[in-house]
Amino acid sequence: xxxxxxxxxxxxxxxxxxxxxxxxxxxxxxxxxxxxxxxxxxxxxxxxxxxxxxxxxxxxxxxxxxxxxxxxxxxxxxxxxxxxxxxxxxxxxxxxxxxxxxxxxxxxxxxxxxxxxxxxxxxxxxxxxxxxxxxxxxxxxxxxxxxxxxxxxxxxxxxxxxxxxxxxxxxxxxxxxxxxxxxxxxxxxxxxxxxxxxxxxxxxxxxxxxxxxxxxxxxxxxxxxxxxxxxxxxxxxxxxxxxxxxxxxxxxxxxxxxxxxxxxxxxxxxxxxxxxxxxxxxxxxxxxxxxxxxxxxxxxxxxxxxxxxxxxxxxxxxxxxxxxxxxxxxxxxxxxxxxxx
Length: 341
Description:
Blueprint: H1 2-19, H2 34-43, E1 52-55, E2 61-66, E3 69-74, E4 79-85, E5 88-89, E6 91-98, H3 111-116, E7 123-133, E8 137-147, E9 155-164, E10 169-177, E11 186-194, E12 199-206, E13 219-226, E14 243-246, E15 248-253, E16 256-262, E17 268-273, H4 277-282, E18 294-303, E19 325-336
Antiparallel strand pairs: 1-2, 2-3, 3-4, 4-5, 6-11, 7-8, 8-9, 9-10, 10-19, 11-18, 12-13, 12-15, 14-17, 15-16, 16-19, 17-18
């Protein structure tokens, strides 16, 4: 029996050693990953159909139309409320800024403070929306804020949306955080996409979930996975399934694909799920979770670290989102998969 135990321990140690890997960053002449570069080339490709912008003072919607697409922005929020592409609506709900996550066990000592600041109930309000239609793109400039109704705004933003002639959209954000709010759980955007967009491909840290301070077991690679398999079934539901340091993420279905890439030279984190962060927060057990009927895609400029505060020290400053100013940019590219890039 003793010999058998020793053999099993040795085999486990050997298997662990063989599973280890190292990553070495190698500089190359072209800093862009090939897939990202091909998406940018596709987005900037020529098309004979011109752009048109419809901005009626008596209409709360600003509409941009082009080759196979029609996008609508709500001038009261400055955010997209509809993205019709190749005859299909891609959105179930308006795009929104996102500063909240379902609290994790290690948030137990800060979650009450975050809720006092109403970070879990933010809404976006536009103060000024300007639209100009240029030969290669339509540009929408928005001055806005995001916050709950009962408290001061969490952030004030200067946002620029650019819609290109083949349907690609860039979002560029300069955000100023209220200095009284010490730290944010995350900063980015949340999209409620159609549920048939359910196959996810990404290049980043995987295959398991990864975070800024929790990715030592992950590796950089291209991964393709079904939407439901990205969920980590913790006994008590909480934030899960994020992937750190990504160059792109794509969700596809019904012959269409929705890509997101950085537009500022940085990487990002993403989370794709059948569950909302509100559902994860409000249910006590994983088996009680109910899907929302959409593919919830969170694109994060930063996601706060996981830390170890439930039984250890508070989250180190390096992993907090506590600066007063943030700038980030993403490009969203719908694609008809029946047309070759």
